[in-house]
Amino acid sequence: MKSIVQSLSLIGALSFTTGAYAENINLNLYAFGIKAGTITVNAAETPDAYAVRGAVTPTKLLKKIKDIGYTGSATGVVKKDALQVRKYSGNARTGSRNSVVKMRWKGSRPIVDTYNPERARRDYDLTPSKQTGTIDLLSSAYLTFKTATPETLCNSRRKMFDGRRLSELSLGKPKISGTTATCNGNYKRLAGFSPDKMKKKVNFPFSVRYEQNDDGTYRFQEFTADASIGKIRATRK
Q1: DSSP 195
Q2: pLDDT tier at 54 (50, 70, 90 boundaries)?
Q3: DSSP states along 206-223
Q4: How far, in Å, CA of 9 to CA of 51, rounded?
Q5: How far is it, in rounded angstroms, from Cα 170 to Cα 234?
Q6: What backbone torsions phi and psi does residue 71 show, to the nearest 5 degrees?
Q7: What is the DSSP letter of 173?
Q8: Pairing between strand 180-191 and 166-171?
Q9: Burial (Cβ within 10 Å: 0-12, 13-18, ≥19) of residue 237
Q10: Domain boundaries in the chain?
């Protein structure tokens, strides 16, 4: 809770800083053919720093089917238009596991301060300090959802570390049709997942749609994806 409050304070401070960029992304989430909940990503960014907080809030109906949810926050620095996370905290429910994580990055090297529930080390577990060059999943989601210029839209690849698992998010070159840009992407499990998870599924393809603003930038509108709970879709409110 303390780290989330600190992140909210930093978002507020950055929002009033000269040259700051802020974006509030609110999505309706659909799964199993019904409205399943909401996704929110609120961020503030200056040429030197960024702060982001996010949440996935299920509807009561989805919670009865599969108890999923998420709250998290991240802060870091901006270098050459790239985000370098410094602190991250998250509380996630996936339907198969609950986790509370606090991490920090020293340079490009992640350090896990807390990962609950604790358990004995397993053969497939990773050494956090070796997962260099990674960012957290929330910062990666913000990079996908944020309004982008034609030069920075999609066409990217990011490795992510959540404290135990290593994954990769890739986005191909945008396909432009009028004022609409569509990008095909893939979420890939790399390491740190159980053998059963890796055997079941490694790649989760998705598609993202953006609409062009009057100033030429592209604003996120919708994504469709294969997820662990099945086909999902999220549209901007």
Answers
A1: H
A2: very high
A3: EEEEEEE-TTS-EEEEEE
A4: 9
A5: 18
A6: -140, 140
A7: P
A8: antiparallel
A9: exposed
A10: 2-236
